[in-house]
Write a structure and sequence with these properties.
The complex is a heterodimer. By secondary structure, chain A is α+β, with helices and mostly antiparallel strands. In chain A, 30% of the residues lie in helices and 44% in strands. The longest helix of chain A has 14 residues. By secondary structure, chain B is α+β, with helices and mostly antiparallel strands. Classes of the chains: A alpha+beta, B alpha+beta.
Chain lengths: 135, 310
């Protein structure tokens, strides 16, 4: 698998709920050893990321993460997406019942090598999601 | 022979012109990239970072193409609105700094990942601040550039983290130790953060929840040891029970014990049946900074009814 294919499967098969596979099955072969996913203040490894996505699938059964732009500079892939879904349960400390949806922009910068993702920097516009789910 | 000589000469001339145009094109591209990068440098260092040499409007005027739009998840603003917002940021965040960490380039698009930091003083996005608390967050921008001008920008800032960093400390009595640990454990459960959960569990932890013994995560009502809870109880529980509503209403605690009281609704995945809303209580005990007892009191008749529903 090429690096771009690995990056795309991250969105289409692991971040978007589908009936063919599961996040852990998709990500296990494409995240390199020592993989780190970094937000503003914390980083998580592959196991933690897969655990979080399994949880997302459970609580947001219609979760979709649709790439809008994919850019490439050397080994780096930059993806701007629209993430959407209707959580049902305790979502980031907010009680939800599946009747409200969020739709937000996200951006990720993936560093890749030989078809594997070495690291990711990510931001999601969760402030807007929380407003949409409250309102 | 003379003709062949002329053809070769013509080919060499064409090749030389072609090499020159490739070189010129590369030079033009290089000039374009330099112009674009200089504009990006100005954007972050002179307009987004407070400095004494200039002002956002002064630094940015003339740098946006006609019809420029800066877009976030839900709204877009033009050049004037953006400059107005930056002027306001300079006023309320006098030490604002927007430091690029990486710049990547693909065609006309430049992606800039930065660390934005500052100490706001005043009403900042609805949070009252007094210049004593600082935020430091990651931001990403995708700029489409042409000839040293910004055509459009897509941007995200991690304001969710900034708001947490800036929130004033509540004037509440110091939270009891047991509640701090129980809250952290519940928060990790809510996020599916197994590593944090595992770190907060005492090796001898007991998960106690009496009820219908035919339900796989209840059985005898007691799961003893961290290992058993992680390897046997939690997989069964997370497979079979989905929390639809979980609303703590009251809590009491001292340094060893915390009690929570609230309302909840669950979905039993084997039957697809939701419980009616019921009142729960939770008793948590801590030892050596870790959870040693997690004792649920729920409406076990209601949970059993939903589990056994057709």
């Amino acid at each position: 698998m090429g690096s771009k294919e690995a990056v795309m499967s991250f969105y289409n098969k692991a971040l978007t709920v589908n009936s063919e596979t599961r996040p852990t099955a998709v990500l296990t072969p494409i995240l390199a050893e020592g993989y780190l996913s970094s937000g503003s203040v914390e980083s998580k490894g592959a196991e933690q990321l897969m655990g979080q996505l399994e949880f997302f699938w459970k609580i947001i059964p219609d979760l979709k993460w649709e790439p809008q732009d994919v850019y490439n500079d050397g080994d780096v892939y930059i993806v701007r997406s629209i993430a959407s879904g209707s959580p049902n349960g305790d979502f980031m400390g907010m009680p939800t019942d599946g009747t409200k949806a969020f739709k937000i922009m996200t951006m990720d910068i993936h560093t890749t090598k030989d078809g594997k993702i070495l690291s990711t920097h990510h931001i999601e516009d969760w402030v807007t999601a929380m407003k949409q789910l409250k309102g | 022979m003379k003709n062949i000589g002329s053809i070769i000469l013509a080919l060499l001339l064409m090749l030389s012109i072609s090499c020159d145009s490739t070189k010129n094109l590369a030079k033009i591209n290089q000039q374009e990239v330099m112009k674009n990068k200089a504009a990006i440098n100005t954007f972050y260092n002179k307009a987004l970072s407070v400095n004494t040499e200039t002002r956002p409007t002064q630094a940015l005027t003339g740098m946006f193409a006609e019809g420029y739009k800066s877009s976030s998840s839900t709204d877009s603003k033009g050049a004037e609105a953006l400059m107005g917002q930056l002027e306001f940021f300079w006023k309320v965040v006098p030490d604002l700094k927007w430091a690029p960490q990486t710049i990547t380039n693909d065609g006309d698009v430049y992606t800039v990942r930065s660390i934005a930091s500052g100490t706001p003083n005043g009403d900042f996005m609805g949070v009252p601040t007094d210049g004593t608390k600082k935020f430091s967050i990651m931001t990403m921008d995708m700029h489409t550039m042409k000839d040293g001008k910004f055509m459009s920008t897509h941007h995200i800032e991690d304001w969710s983290t900034a708001m947490q960093q800036l929130k004033p400390k509540m004037d509440m009595p110091k939270k009891a130790e047991a509640m701090k640990i129980a809250d952290a454990y519940m928060g990790a459960m809510g996020k599916g953060d197994m590593e944090t959960m595992s770190n907060l569990m005492h090796d001898d932890m007991v998960w106690q929840n009496a009820g219908d013994s035919s339900i796989p995560w209840i059985r005898t009502g007691r799961w003893e040891s961290k290992k058993v809870i992680l390897e046997k109880f939690l997989p069964e529980f997370s497979k079979g029970f989905q929390t639809i509503k979980w609303q703590p209403v009251d809590a009491v605690a001292d340094d060893e014990t915390a009690g929570y009281f609230g309302q909840m609704i669950g979905l039993l995945t084997n039957s697809g049946e939701k419980t009616n809303e019921f009142t729960y209580a939770l008793r948590v005990k801590v030892k050596d900074g870790k959870v040693i007892l997690w004792n649920w009191f729920e409406d076990s008749v209601e949970v059993s009814r939903a589990y056994n529903a057709k």
